[in-house]
Amino acid sequence: MSASDTSSAMRVVDIHTHMYPPSYICILESRSTIPLVRSFSQDPNPRLILLQTEVKVLEEATRDAAASPPGRPLTSHYASLAQKIHFMDTHHIDISVISLANPWLDFLDPSESGQMAESVNNEFSTMCGQHPSRLYFFGTLPLTATLDTVLSSISHLKDLKYCRGVILGTSGLGKGLDDPNLLPIFEALAAAQLTIFLHPHYGLPNEVWGPRSSEYGHVLSLALGFTMETTIAVTRMYLSGVFDKVRQLRMILAHSGGTLPFLAGRIESCIMHDGQLVREGRVGKNRRTVWDVLKEQVYLDAVVYSEIGLRAAIDASGADRLMFGTDHPFFPPLTTDEQGEWESVSLNAAAVAKAVGDGSAQAKAIMGGNAIDILRLDEDA
Amino acid sequence: MSASDTSSAMRVVDIHTHMYPPSYICILESRSTIPLVRSFSQDPNPRLILLQTEVKVLEEATRDAAASPPGRPLTSHYASLAQKIHFMDTHHIDISVISLANPWLDFLDPSESGQMAESVNNEFSTMCGQHPSRLYFFGTLPLTATLDTVLSSISHLKDLKYCRGVILGTSGLGKGLDDPNLLPIFEALAAAQLTIFLHPHYGLPNEVWGPRSSEYGHVLSLALGFTMETTIAVTRMYLSGVFDKVRQLRMILAHSGGTLPFLAGRIESCIMHDGQLVREGRVGKNRRTVWDVLKEQVYLDAVVYSEIGLRAAIDASGADRLMFGTDHPFFPPLTTDEQGEWESVSLNAAAVAKAVGDGSAQAKAIMGGNAIDILRLDEDA
């Protein structure tokens, strides 16, 4: 029976769900600049500090034991596999496609990153093997290493039974995803049928948030910085021709594409009305538009927290290209038990039900069927 | 007969349409840094250079007469009232609410801006008087001047017969629109029933576009920079409590809110899940959400170039809060006659027809009825 058969029971798949394995947390604990893990007397949990916007809060808390601690509590949700399974059971998630969370291995010395990638990918592979048919994973590439090392890592991932793709940040080799030096990597991923899960980390420069931004917690950098970063990264890829040059490239965009479904029309109009691009003959009749790429090479997760955004995402890419996700272990409930239901999850599940109808064929597809088909999660069932 | 009576013929109102009156162009011609107007041997038209992303192209063209000229041709569309009326007639636009284009008076020395605002606002007022019942305008504030000067300017605008609001950039007094020093200005505008038309100019810092951005013309800064800038500005206003503090404030957001309709769900979730905001008791039950503000204090133009984005905007704010616009004189056709129809206009008109049905009551409202009601364009008819 096909996973997308609408008469079948719904299976829920979470394709946006992270872990920091213990070996990775050790690296973060050894660091003195963000990203890092550090303990403060203000909090029984160690704190995980990821965002560049947190530099000032980190400095304050280091100086003054009465100041608010920076970052977020590093609870068992970040590193414990048992906790991941408990979370899945609590939310009726049948399958999770787990991935290392940001900032992956982007900050490692080139001499370390190849070995660390191998170790992290093996660790994810082992975790999946402990829960066959419930766990798959997106691997991590050692992007600070040499091209040969990155290509070896892709070969390694191709042979790991539960690996279905790689999670990728927007910095690439350091110059963004429109860097032509990434093309052999994109080609190798496409040839290995490894889907890219594009995920933000770097946000926007602090100056855009203004002098009062510390009053707004993490809202600006997480709600706007992350989504805008993803949109910029994909648009740069599109404009540089990556999607034409590597036609078999497949890419899942985090947070329903950041803002791409909403902005695609304006991007297209700006291209058609750009003097330079028209002079250079780049706006010809056979051009594949942003809309074409959204329907042919891009998938979107359904992590957008409202039916209004989700409907735009569905209209842009198609209901057969959206895939449910939770963003666990981020956004835990702050006023209810962390072991119970998470509102950040139910918000996204409710958005699916509202956008396409609770229990509808499209809802089943978005909640799990699409992921099973697209990421071949039935292959060893 | 009410403008929103669906049995009446459709009247088309353009609320997003700019002019640079000759006196303003003189200022731009006298400048040596962006924004500026300058002639190059490469182009018979003077060139209008507005964007910080154009610094390098400007330098190159200044050094090398064979290099591509920076900016865009400053055609008669920018300064000629006759041309504006011709454009309106060509596109069956009954009424235009004209406004000075970016960057307004944001760059003027404080000693000059008060007088320049008065002169520019009088110039717009005179233009409207030459075409009664066809032209209204949004005035311009001298934001680099003293508070008293700004408040005097608001009093002046309140008395100008065809003025219906002010156009405002995102820098405010230099620190963004969440600056508490702006509150008396917002209060004065609300008391005078002058609607703010919030418009981007500053985009995002050049570094986010990466080392290859010059290959992409103006696409990144106009399609993404402008829309993200607006979204950030409004979100900062929301988080600082401006909309609660000045409940009568009314604001039209350019480009259908930038990306706000798509991101409002994520903004709300990030607020609910922010440790700092929850600790500070800022996420209480009676909080007015971003959605509430979108439906109560914000209007959106319909300049989004696709029915997918437009539908999200309508779902977020309501079909009675959307207003058609053209962005004339920007985005002229590049391969057809500038005196004929502009595709940048027809794209947005088609989006309305596709989103709510050609000729429907909602289409009539968005194409003109809403603007007539909201901006009181029938008052002196």
TrEMBL record, chains A, B:
A single BP term in Gene Ontology: secondary metabolic process
Every Amidohydrolase-related domain range: 105-377
Keyword Lyase recorded: yes
GO molecular function: carboxy-lyase activity; hydrolase activity
Signal peptide range: none
A Pfam match: Amidohydro_2
Key words, A-Z: Decarboxylase, Lyase
Assigned GO CC terms: cytosol
Family to which this protein belongs: Belongs to the metallo-dependent hydrolases superfamily.
Protein name stated in the entry: Amidohydrolase-related domain-containing protein
Lineage: Eukaryota, Fungi, Dikarya, Ascomycota, Pezizomycotina
